[in-house]
User: What shape does this take?
Amino acid sequence: MKILISNDDGYLAPGLSALAEAMAKIAEILVIAPDSNRSGCSNSLTLDRPLSVTRAANGFYFVNGTPSDCVHIALTGMLDFAPDLVVSGINNGQNMGDDTLYSGTVAAATEGYLFGLPAMAFSQVRSGWSQLECAARIASEMVQRRLDGLSKPFLLNVNIPNLPYEDIAGIKATRLGKRHVSEPVIRATDPHGREIFWIGPTGAERDAGEGTDFHATASRYVSVTPLQIDLTHTAQLGVLSRQFS
Ligand code: MN
Assistant: This one.
């Protein structure tokens, strides 16, 4: 098995090393990741400047671009590596509910999925890199699991509680929860007296009930959500079609 590995926290992130180490025990790996932290960059591609790929001392490749750039470059021929699976992470913090839309971690996996490859994104629920060993072990188990019946390619969003392995209750298949709108923007003043803004924190959980990713991880379960990329609102398409028929 050949596994392409990326993330959005950058090629120096401990979560990436932990994931690469775990995958190297079960597969041939290639790691290609952004040169810096690109968390929250979603599926963006860099189209206004060229990209460079540099090989680090540990064998990881880093790119002056986004997670999607990294996977895109690897899959379109810059790197001579044809993977069977794309994995991303282990992200420093959760990617659940609405967060998945903004996530560069999920985006790296999505890029593989869009190229027809099975893909998995791994995130740890609270940031801080605690319990990385447990998260890497679970990632390895998920990758080795026979996911019979899933149509290929699949795109799985996995969120792992920050707990020792023994304290994980199990794995639950979930749907994405939902959040309230984000907290207000944070205003500040730069050294030149100009007003500046920081994007505020995410909103509180709105739909975190039974069956959601939020609920599973709060109950000490690993959450795995199958994702799809077709954004079409099928119910509204019906209404709209009748109006324009
Ligand atoms: Mn991140």
